[in-house]
TrEMBL record:
The lineage of its organism: Bacteria, Pseudomonadati, Pseudomonadota, Alphaproteobacteria, Sphingomonadales. Residues 6-142 form the Endoribonuclease L-PSP/chorismate mutase-like domain. This is Endoribonuclease L-PSP. CDD domains: YjgF_YER057c_UK114_like_1. It comes from Novosphingobium resinovorum. Pfam families: YjgF_endoribonc (PF14588). Keywords: Plasmid.
Length: 154
């Protein structure tokens, strides 16, 4: 089977090892078939997208950062599913946060970097509800943070 793993390979995405928490929380919690995944930051092994969007970070860089957040979320999904991403039956919700400067208003466009990837990877099962919020500060000065709620097959 491995439908989602094959799709990731087609997209040229190698999932990282899931990030360990940086404070007093767990990477995800599960209640029945619903999994809540803690916020993932705009980083990978090669680089980090940090700073204030609209000042230090361009909209395009932030959108790329949102895509990194989505890749990190999918890595957490894989952990929550015991390694089998085909168990994801629906991406239910994304909560997107952008460290936005006072003149930056394209927050929803930035979070599209994550939303678009969820649909690319999971197809119709990747369509989700979401919030896209501009905030004053994010942890460790990252430009974007995104959390998720998914449904998985038992």
């Amino acid at each position: 089977m491995l439908r989602i793993a094959n799709r990731l390979a087609q997209l040229g995405i190698a999932l990282p090892e899931p990030s360990a928490p940086v404070a007093n929380y767990v990477p995800y919690t599960r209640s029945g078939r619903i999994v809540h995944v803690s916020g993932q930051l705009s980083r990978d092994a090669a680089h980090e997208v940090k700073g204030i969007v609209g000042e230090d970070v361009t909209s395009e860089q932030a959108t790329g950062g949102a895509r990194l957040c989505a890749i990190n979320l999918i890595a957490q999904f894989r952990a929550a599913c015991g390694g089998d991403l085909d168990r994801v039956t629906q991406v239910l919700r994304l909560g997107g946060y952008v460290q936005a400067g006072p003149s930056f208003f394209a927050v929803p466009a930035v979070i599209n970097g994550a939303s678009n990837l969820m649909v690319e990877v999971f197809g119709e099962h990747g369509r989700h509800s979401r919030s896209a919020v501009g905030v004053y500060r994010l942890p460790l000065n990252y430009a974007v943070e995104i959390d998720a709620v998914i449904e998985i097959r038992a």
